[in-house]
């Protein structure tokens, strides 16, 4: 039986202000910190520690044991200043020949640029497994 590995991450914010996202969903970012135990570790999300773009998930991931809450700490000022974007596609705009997507911040405001971005959509367990498996193959974790 393989040893269990735990990736550490942080909840960035509730995601309900994003277009097409319901109440009860959160933006989560994973770090490249991986351990064999569920001990509390201190880390800051920054350019060298962010493993993947944000995921949009609901509490199901905590209830079914995919995620664990190790501690509750507010984001640092540097983490709050991360430029995280969420892409929303608009097929009608695309069909009219316009740019078919917009970029939003976590508060639902249109932005021009982001350092880290993802599609504004729900992340499934299979999507997470794929992302993490890819990082494992690449040797990132």
Could you describe the 3D structure shown?
The protein has 141 residues and is an alpha+beta fold. Helices cover 19% and strands 27% of the residues. The chain has a 3-stranded antiparallel beta sheet. The chain has a 3-stranded mixed beta sheet with strand order 5-4-6. InterPro entries: Imm26 (IPR029278).
Strand order of the largest sheet: 1-2-3
Q: Number of DSSP strands?
A: 6
* Helix/strand structural class: alpha+beta
Strand count, sense and barrel status of the largest sheet are: 3 strands, antiparallel
Termini gap = 19 Å
Assembly of the depicted chains: single chain
Q: Average pLDDT value?
A: 91
Pfam families: Imm26
Summary tags:
single chain, 141 residues, alpha+beta, three-stranded antiparallel beta sheet, three-stranded mixed beta sheet, Imm26
Secondary structure layout:
Layout: E1 6-14, E2 25-35, E3 55-58, H1 60-63, H2 77-80, E4 84-89, H3 91-95, E5 101-104, E6 116-119, H4 125-138
Parallel strand pairs: 4-6
Antiparallel strand pairs: 1-2, 2-3, 4-5
Summarize the structure.
With 141 residues, the chain is of the alpha+beta class. Helices cover 19% and strands 27% of the residues.
